[in-house]
Design brief:
This protein is mainly β and 248 residues long. It is built from no helices and 20 strands.
Length: 248
């Protein structure tokens, strides 16, 4: 979903007539029968499926693409097969997997290829400003800056994108009315801009023209922002909110 490396392949279900067929290791008796491998490519932290991953059985030549829930099935395999997982701008490690054993949990880390984007670029906007998350994890902002919502250390309006100061390794962004929040790949949340209702979450009502860390919040996987409040979804499924509460 958001984290740039923590992806997995789980669970794996292998069916074949030959009981000696196993997943992982060295095959003892290559089966004469054909068999199938099915499973899911999922986010290790959230369990959400990753779609659009190409799965290629090297020896048999069969291919599949993971669906919306990360699932895939390849039929008609024979002998020992290497499963390769391919996606634009991403590699998988270990890759390939050798299909050698009975149902087993495997882990594949989806990692950036050299010079590729580390995260998926994203855009967001507020009342009079806009944000762009670049593939390298940095954030650019432009537009109104009266409350420091551009995060460049000033309150000067900018008609072109400026870099949000000191922010790196971001994986998600959200724009509120006059404040913004960013999720970093370590699960922490950072915010900047107006803070009259405590929407920056740093324990003060002081506006900030550079990102400040939301106090005491870790393990976050998604963020959102409203007019005067902010919201975070944690990896344990709980939701946390701070800021204005006039309407609950």
């Amino acid at each position: 979903m958001f984290f740039k490396q923590k992806y997995g392949f789980d669970p794996v279900n292998v069916s074949a007539v030959n009981a000696n067929l196993v997943v992982k290791g060295t095959i003892l008796e290559p089966p004469a029968e054909t068999y199938q491998v099915s499973g899911r490519v999922v986010h290790l932290t959230t369990g959400l499926g990753i779609s659009g991953v190409s799965v290629f059985a090297f020896a048999s030549g069969q291919t599949a693409t993971t669906g919306s829930n990360g699932e895939f099935t390849i039929d008609g395999l024979f002998g020992t097969n290497e499963l390769h997982f391919i996606q634009d701008n991403w590699g998988f490690s270990p890759n390939p997997l050798v299909v050698t054993g009975a149902a087993s949990n495997l882990t594949i880390n989806r990692i950036p290829l050299p010079n590729a984007n580390l995260v998926e670029p994203k855009v967001a906007c507020g009342y009079g400003h806009s944000l762009f998350l670049k593939g390298d994890g940095t954030v650019r902002a432009w537009g109104n800056n009266y409350y420091g919502q551009l995060g460049d250390g000033s309150t000067t309006i900018s008609y072109f994108p400026v870099r949000v100061s000191g922010l790196s390794d971001a994986v998600a962004i959200a724009g509120g009315h006059d404040h913004n929040i960013a999720l970093k790949d370590d699960g922490t949340v950072w915010s900047w801009g107006v803070n009259g209702d405590g929407q920056l979450g740093d324990g003060t009502y002081i506006y900030s023209n550079v990102p400040v860390r939301v106090s005491g919040l870790t393990g976050v996987v998604a963020v959102a922002a409203g007019r005067g409040h902010s919201v975070a979804l944690k990896e344990d499924g709980t939701v946390w909110a701070w800021g204005s509460n006039s309407y609950g």
